[in-house]
Amino acid sequence: MKRRRQTSTRSSACGLVLATICVALCNCQSLNEAAPPVATAAPHAAAQLEFGRNLYVTKCAKCHAPEPVRKYSVSKWEELIPEMAEETRLTPGETAAVRDYVMAVLAYHGPRG
Ligand code: HEC
Predict the structure, then answer these.
(1) Which atom of ligand 1 is nearest to the CA of 60?
(2) Are residues 94 and 54 in contact, defined by beta-carbon separation less than 8 angstroms?
(3) Which residue numbers in the chain have pLDDT < 50?
């Protein structure tokens, strides 16, 4: 009798653990669906920023030295990027990469005030 009770307690505890794991996994899955983790949401992000920076230090430095990114505000860059992209004859994709790079620097470090 004693033994039986022990076994059944253990098996229901085991069921509880399994149920908890299952709920945790399901929750995790729907959470990841609702808010995709950074690694899967934007696996291209680092490459895109690298591409933008490469353009910035090469093509954007043909007529003048590379301008300090943090010297200008976000709104000033919003004006400058289309103008300078035209000067540089960047493709829309290249322009977007330069913009992403500049905005990432400003978002993380802020303009130098
Ligand atoms: C064909 C030559 C040329 C290229 C290529 C070029 N620029 Fe310029 N840039 C200029 C000239 C000329 C000025 C100064 C006059 C002006 O503001 O239009 C300037 C000014 C600037 C300024 C200062 C603006 C201010 O108001 O003080 C920034 C910042 C800048 N460029 C960024 C860039 C970026 C980023 C790129 C690449 C997307 C780039 N430039 C490519 C010619 C160029």
Answers:
(1) 37
(2) no
(3) 1
pLDDT for the residue 24 = 65
Please state the atom number of ligand 1 nearest to the C-alpha of residue 88.
5
pLDDT at res. 4: 54
Q: What residues contact residue 3 under an 8 Å CB cut-off, 6+ apart?
A: none
Buried b (16+ CB within 10 A) or exposed e, 69-83: beebeeeebeeebee
Say yes or no: CB of residue 85 within 6 Å of ligand 1. Answer: yes
Please count the residues of the chain. Answer: 113
**What percentage of the chain exceeds 90 in pLDDT?**
57
Look up residue 95 and give its two tokens.
Answer: 């322009």
How many Cβ atoms sit within 10 Å of the Cβ of residue 43? 9
